[in-house]
Amino acid sequence: MNTFAGGSIESVLVEKRVFPPPVEFAKSARISSMEEYRTLWNRAKDDPQGFWNDMASHLVWRKPWDKVMEWTEPHVKWYVGGQLNASENCVDRHCVGPRRNKAALIWEGEPGDRRVLRYQDLKREVGRFANVLKAQGVTKGDVVAIYMPMVPELVIAMLACARIGAPHTVVFGGFSGEALAGRIQDCSAKVLVTADGGFRRGNIIHLKEQVDEALAHCPTIRNVVVLKRTGHQIHMEPGRDHWWHEMASIASADCPPEPLDSEHPLFILYTSGSTGTPKGILHTTGGYLVGTTLTASWVFDLKEEDTYFCTADCGWITGHSYLVYGPLSNGATVVMYEGAPDYPDKDRFWQIVQDYGVTIFYTAPTAIRAFMKWGEQYARKHDLSSLRLLGTVGEPINPEAWVWYREVIGGGRCPVVDTWWQTETGAIMIAPLPGATPTKPGTATLPLPGVVPEVVTKSGEPVEPNQGGYLVIKQPWPSMMRTIHGDDERYRRQYWSEIPGVYFTGDGARRDHDGNFWIMGRVDDVLNVAGHRLSTMEIESALVHHKAVAEAAVVGKPDELRGQAITAFVTLKSGYQPSEDLRQQLRQHVAHEIGALARPDDLRFTDALPKTRSGKIMRRLLRDVAAGVESTGDTSTLEDFSVLARLRHEEE
Ligand code: WTA
Description:
Elements: H1 9-14, H2 23-27, H3 34-46, H4 48-55, E1 67-72, E2 75-80, E3 83-84, H5 86-90, E4 103-108, E5 114-118, H6 119-135, E6 144-147, H7 152-164, E7 168-170, H8 177-187, E8 191-195, E9 198-200, E10 203-205, H9 207-215, E11 223-227, E12 241-243, H10 244-249, E13 260-261, E14 265-271, E15 279-284, H11 285-299, E16 307-310, H12 317-329, E17 333-337, H13 348-356, E18 360-363, H14 365-374, H15 377-380, E19 389-393, H16 399-409, E20 416-419, E21 453-456, E22 469-473, E23 483-484, H17 488-496, E24 503-511, E25 517-522, E26 526-529, E27 532-535, H18 536-544, E28 549-559, E29 563-572, H19 580-593, E30 602-605, H20 619-627, H21 629-632, H22 635-651
Parallel strand pairs: 4-17, 6-7, 6-8, 8-11, 11-12, 16-17, 16-18, 18-19, 19-20, 29-30
Antiparallel strand pairs: 1-2, 3-13, 4-5, 9-10, 14-15, 15-23, 21-22, 22-24, 24-25, 26-27, 28-29
Bound molecules: 5'-O-[(S)-ethoxy(hydroxy)phosphoryl]adenosine.
Enzyme class: ligase
Binding site for ATP: 394-396, 418-423, 507, 522, 533
InterPro entries: Ac_CoA_lig (IPR011904), ACAS_N (IPR032387), AMP-bd_C (IPR025110), AMP-bd_C_sf (IPR045851), AMP-binding_CS (IPR020845), AMP-dep_synth/lig_dom (IPR000873), ANL_N_sf (IPR042099)
């Protein structure tokens, strides 16, 4: 079957099944009826200032704000004049009452090692590492880069940065040294926190080697703190590299959280856009924390006794918002796992769910499609009866996967929340409230209170129900990005100029007669490969850096498992001949420049690339060629292509 971002368009269009919230679940849910939801949503729409004023009371503030919001399009400030500290909200405030002995973080390493950090322990470790950072010369406002495997120290490092007002920039461990260097250079990070390596599918990921390569081009980095995780032999640069355990052993655990302005930068997270270089998305403290705290509590219905497992890596926004800030600010118990879902066998997640009695599980559609392919016997081996809520994020979920997830993993009793949002939005925007919203497989359903989305034409006119259009957001919200670090012009252009007066998401969508939003995928040149955002231009520019390449065009090809796969079309410079050896070299070259996640699955040599008269590469055509649509004759897929193609065409 042909797929669009993992699902067949036909099944999405004919999808009529509706799953109301289970009665038992709704009884004790935080928001337990559509009436309650509508009241909240209408209030937030009509009186955003009053609504968000009240919502901020879920946090501990050092100084109250003078003004809820200041909006001068496209720039917003929230809780102006207020002061708070994100690490105090995520850690210290839970250390005064009975929660102080509650598990904050339950961690399992891939080799099977386990650690539990209670809120008290987390506070001590965060305080200690904040003092280590200070000793390395980090002061308020300095950027700290973090490039680590999924170990508790990654969370500790993030919160330690937040504690002293040093914005962090976490770089996913799957990115290469080159990609790390580019990000460090862009934000002029002063200190890098890393590890000797991490474990993945039984192998060691050699992080420190990548770091050594990167730092040859990063003059702003003065010090590197290295966590010993794998214990394999690495190079330690004298005067620059310091062992985490040595620094920590001489640091005090006591570091009072610094009161910070609500608009103080909390982090910069790089993500792919439609042009070559990654964008440093800037989030600030107060609004981001209000947004993530509230949405974690609403959408995951977090209760005191929950055990919450988010499978995302902290290198992505989901890890930031729903592994660290959102759940910890709510005082939840978070399960964190270091490695691959299929190591040592394909039931690893289910073993974790059973062993820790996980109640809420949040993962990506691409993972669910892999579980389906592996077969339900892996889930059946374990007792999953502790689960009460399932979530997905990162890409459209096809109804088949949605229903499988609900039945096989959720035992037919757990609501499924399909959550739509972006690095830029900071927090979940469109998602069911599990105790209130009737769900349908394949739609993220309705906007959360405070979120006012619409599907519009290029000129900003609302489209009729069930017509495809652009997804935009019409009112500012607290957790929205503030700018692109170092490039405010690009921020204006990319998000606030395409369609007048609104935030443009880059996604195509349609809204059905019940008001549900069906996200159709990106309308720009951003790829979504296994839930990871990649830019076609970034991969193209990596390819043309190779001496043999004259021109390159990269497109996404529908992939049943990963949503999209990467297809590259390459023309060679004279003197170079296509060969299997060169094909492998070029694929490897991309992995080296960006990371293995960007390695083209399919690389085709061609004499010329199809172009318009004005010289623009005709990507639409290449996409069809990559997908082989003509040859399959599957009109449902063609239909999907035509909608997206029209949108793309309008853009051209
Ligand atoms: C896509 C991930 C459909 C979308 C949190 C968006 C989704 C991009 C969904 C952002 C969903 C995310 N249904 N599509 N539930 N969630 N997307 O910045 O195209 O890594 O624009 O943030 O992922 O990806 P990002």
